[in-house]
Amino acid sequence: MDYVSTTTPLTYAFYEGPSWEPPAPREWTAPAVVEPVLDAPQAPEPSTPDLPKAVGWMIVGAYGAILGTFALSFLGDAEVGLMLGVCAVYLAVYLGVPAVILRMEPKVETRPDLADFLREGLSTWTGRVSAGSALAQILTIPVALAVAAAGLGVIVRLSA
C-alpha cells in the first residue's frame, strides 16, 4: 500500500493511488431468449400418487364422526338442527373441493392399496416415511378433533 502523507490537506487531494469509489456500472445486456422445445403436451404431476384412497376415506370418516357426535349431543332444538345443517354444508365444501381437484388431475397408473402403503410407506422430498408416521401426520388433527367432540358430547349429555 502506498504511503499517503497527512501533513497537509492538499497532499491527499492530489493522491492518485487506488480509489475507494465503486467502479462504474457496466452496460447491461439482456440474455438470449431460448424457447423450450416441447415434443409432447405437458401434464401436471399428480399430488398424491402413492397414497391409497383409504386414507382419504379415513379423513372423511373422522370429520363425519365429528358431525355425527355433534348431532347426537346437541340435536333437539330447531336452532341446533339449522346449525348442524350449516356445518354439514361447510363440511361438504371442505371435503368436496379437494375431491374435485383430485378428479381433475391425471390418473395414476398404479395407486397402491392400503396393504402396500402400510408395507412400503410414503415417498417425500426428504426420503421415505413409514406408513405409521405418514398416517400420524395426516390423521392427527381430524382424529383429535373427533375425540374432543366425543368428550364434549359426553359432558353435555351427562350434565343435561
Describe the structure.
The chain has a domain at 53-159. It has five helices and two strands, in the order ααααββα. The chain has helices at residues 9-13, 53-74, 78-104, 114-120, 131-159; strands spanning 122-124, 127-129. A two-stranded antiparallel sheet has the order 1-2. Helix 2 runs antiparallel to helix 3 and helix 2 (53-74) packs parallel to helix 5 (131-159). The relative contact order is 0.14.
Structural key phrases:
5 helices; mainly alpha; 160 residues
SSE layout:
Elements: H1 9-13, H2 53-74, H3 78-104, H4 114-120, E1 122-124, E2 127-129, H5 131-159
Antiparallel strand pairs: 1-2
Output the radius of gyration: 32 Å
Strand content is under 5%
**Considering DSSP H and I runs of 4 or more, what fraction of the residues is helical?**
55-70%
Tell me the number of helical segments per DSSP (H or I, 4 or more residues long). Answer: 5
From the N-terminal CA to the C-terminal CA, the straight-line distance is 90 Å
In terms of per-residue confidence, which ranges show pLDDT below 50 for 5 or more consecutive residues? none
Number of strands: 2
- Name the overall outline: elongated
Structural class: mainly alpha
H-E string: HHHHEEH
- Nearest-integer average pLDDT: 82
The side-by-side strand order for the widest beta sheet comes to: 1-2
Largest sheet: 2 strands, antiparallel
